Amino acid sequence: MSTNPPPDPKTSMWAFIAFHLRFCRNQRKLNGDELGKIINCSKATVSRIENGETRLDEIQASSLDGEWATGGLFTLMVWYARLGHDPDWFREHVSYEARALELKIYELALIPGLFQTEAYARSLMEVAGVEDVDTQVAARMARKEILERRPRPQLWVLLTQSVLDWPYGGPEVMREQLAHLLELALRPNMSIRVIPRFAGSHIGVDGAFKVLRVAEGDVAYTEAHGGGRLILSTEEVRMFATRYDRIGAKALNEDSSRSLIEQVMEAMR
What we know:
6-stranded mixed sheet, 50% helix, elongated
């Protein structure tokens, strides 16, 4: 097992879970392989959980409670951890994003971060009053490396029409941004579809989200003012996947979506 120190248990409930799991394993004189058999994962995954890089899920917590007769302690800790706000949620979501095999992205108001041009991203951050704009823009541009990774991830993108015609940064910046979006839409691993205004009301009006598929399963991330929320619960992630499909039923097909983007660009001349 890794000799890296566990995370500080005072920083968050998730850190406490990682700390306590390692304590319990050492107390029972188990190695990583033996613990992995209990929670149905590899030795490497056990190490990541204990280092705070991956989080214990409900099924794993339940397995620990049953094997070690804890009275449901691990299950309760995971439940409490998911109730609270975690300032590391966005950073952890970015780590999932960087290694995602597939992403389903729904955006209500803005071009998704992975597809933003530098000028568009800068205009958003300046309006928001972000400190050290250059550093933040550079960090956002670095996230786009996933688009060139081999093998390339499959991306399924739904955008409302409002994303296209609200001219952040002015018409010139927006035209450049939409042109970039059209270029991305031609990639074989990319599907970009637009929900037009004439589609009427739909269940996506309450906020943006994404569903990410990584090697160990699916996670979801919802956007919110002041920070989003990372969702690891299998049942809740499945609800977001269903939500994505229902929103997609209101969207134009890919060809019609490209035509609408082109029309919006022309209107900005």
